[in-house]
Amino acid sequence: MTPERLAALHGDCFTIPRPWSADEFRGLLTQKNIHLISHPHGFALISIAGPEAELLTLAVDPDQRRQGFANTLMADMETHCRAENVEEVFLEVVDTNAPARALYVACGYTVKGARKDYYNGPNGTKVSAVVMAKTL
Q1: What is the pLDDT, as a whole number, of residue 118?
Q2: What CATH number does domain 3-135 carry, 3.10.310.30, 3.40.630.30, 3.30.1540.20, 3.30.420.40?
Q3: What is the pTM of this model?
Q4: 128, 118 in Cβ contact below 8 A?
Q5: Concatenated DSSP letters for 4-32?
């Protein structure tokens, strides 16, 4: 996927946190520790640092949701992480994003903590995040 396609899809999926631009994706993809897992209807972007990885973002085309693509991306991301000798994957999710939280729980992630007022929401509001993790 091109940075432009990644940004367009991210923009279709997110308001909180704000969507990332093509230039932001382009910059991320030049970093050695950033890995892109992509499929025709979505992608996962991860950062790997030694035995740990962070799921930076996961996006599935809104018109293609509820078809298992997010589960496939999660499974492929974990397979990739195992091949890179990652032992644990972390992520942050908006605390009010029930569908995403349910996906992560179904994939075996557990809540490890919270980040109060972590994201900037609309009109200057602050939105909290939940930190989740899974040992591979």
Answers
A1: 87
A2: 3.40.630.30
A3: 0.91
A4: yes
A5: HHHHHHHHHH-SSSPPPPHHHHHHHHTST
Q: Would you place residue 51 in the very low, low, confident or very high pLDDT band (cuts 50, 70, 90)?
A: very high
Q: What angle do CA 27, 136, 47 make, to 5 degrees?
A: 10
What beta strand segments (E) does 23-125 contain?
34-39, 42-49, 52-60, 88-94, 110-120
- Using alpha carbons, select from 128, 130, 132, 85 the residue that is nearest to residue 106: 132
Q: What is the pLDDT of residues 58-76, one digit of tens each?
A: 999 888 788 889 999 999 9
What gap in Å lies between CA 71 and CA 21, rounded to an integer?
25
Q: In what order do the strands lie in the sheet with 34-39?
A: 34-39, 42-49, 52-60, 88-94, 126-135, 110-120
Q: From residue 18, how far is each of 13, 43, 49, 67 by CA, in Å? A: 10, 17, 24, 25
Q: How far apart, in whole angstroms, are the C-alpha atoms of residue 110 and residue 44?
A: 19
